[in-house]
Amino acid sequence: MDFSFNEDQNAIRDLAAQIFTDRTTDEFMLDFDRKGKTYDDTLWTTLAEQGLLGITIPEEFGGTGLGFTELCLMLEEQGRRISPIPLYSNLVLGVLPIAEFGSEEQKAKYLAPLAAGELKLTAAIAELGISDAAAGQISAVQKGDGWILNGTLACVPDSPVANAIVVPATASGEQLVFIVDADLAGVTVDAQQSSLGHNEGTLTLDNVELWTEAILGGLSRGAEVMAWIEQRAETALCALQLGVTEEALKRTAEFTCERKQFGAPIGSFQAVAMQAADAFIDVEAIRGTYWLALYKINSGQDARAEVRCAKWYAADAGHRIVYRTQHLHGGMGADIEFPIHRFFLWAKHLGMMLGGRSVQIAKLGALLASDDSVGIAALELA
């Protein structure tokens, strides 16, 4: 059985790696951080020119029509260079659900401009990883042929720069999903500062009026749309986490081979080598569980348990990896301007998005307890 990627997938990976590596060098990122910026508009334009923003957008809407695997390979490369652009929010949270569930009018309105780099999207789904007691909510009330939306949702990734936001809402106990343009009357986005800068926002809808045409997937498929988005969003976070942690470990291996104490490289010390080996095992655990989830999604199989396992590893093992890599840099690891610190911040942020370790293991347990078919499949896999 051949588990290797095909020629087109490798070409996409190589192109993305070249673009990210050429642009986001350590020197560039140091200057970028000192200026307090959040996004690199030049890099965003370059990706549009090379056709990478439209990687999963159908050809009739200006894209290349490739799949989720190609997108995840590109996200891995972004993670390796921690390139400051809103790829995840746009290509995963925005493009994928609109391409899958959107009407022809919605696809033409949002996908073609995004492929050209002229529009940005995101989705307000952070509540999937937040307890019900703390989660915000959007209510939708039907009024004639339209809807009135009210409520607040926090931690919406890259919403301060988004032109439209995919928003879940509740209408008489039923789930609906709307595409809300950011320039509509009553729509407010207040920037929130996370560990990665002002890359999140609080979305407030105050009597926002929308036509039924703004609903994504129709009146009866809201829950299905949200479940579909969640699986792909969590798998994409795992792709980013793999790139971040693998590169952090690679840099640490190089550092410990060059840094000397008592006349010998510290990487030759048993205590250092054992910590690096443990981090390597964790990187491979992230890779294996993420690739399995990706395979099952792409092959149309039930991937619920695999996605939960992958996201748990991305959060749990991701924390251990960047803790060790920063620790093994000694005093240099404590310097917030030294490159390894950025990898620590990214890994911690990615691990918490859509729910960290405790959230994922609780959801996995609930899934196994409620669905015997999932439990049997998990035992067979083990």
Word description of this protein:
The structure is a single chain. The protein is α+β, with helices and mostly antiparallel strands and 382 residues long. The chain has three domains: 113 residues, Orthogonal Bundle (Butyryl-Coa Dehydrogenase, subunit A, domain 1); 94 residues, Butyryl-CoA Dehydrogenase, subunit A, domain 2 (Beta Barrel); 159 residues, Butyryl-CoA Dehydrogenase, subunit A, domain 3 (Up-down Bundle). 53% of the residues lie in helices and 17% in strands. The strands form three sheets. Strands 2-3-7-6 form a four-stranded antiparallel β-sheet, with no helix packed on it. Helix 5 packs antiparallel against helix 6 and helix 7 packs antiparallel against helix 8. The protein is globular, with a radius of gyration of 21 Å. The two termini are 20 Å apart. The mean pLDDT is 93.
Please give a quick description of this structure.
With 382 residues, this protein is an alpha+beta fold.
List the helices and strands and how they pair.
Layout: H1 7-23, H2 26-34, H3 41-49, H4 68-81, H5 87-101, H6 104-115, E1 121-123, E2 137-143, E3 146-157, E4 164-171, E5 174-181, E6 187-194, E7 197-211, H7 222-258, E8 260-261, E9 264-265, H8 270-298, H9 304-327, H10 339-352, H11 357-370, H12 372-381
Helix pairs in contact: 1-4, 4-7, 5-6, 5-7, 7-8, 7-9, 7-10, 8-9, 9-10, 9-11, 11-12
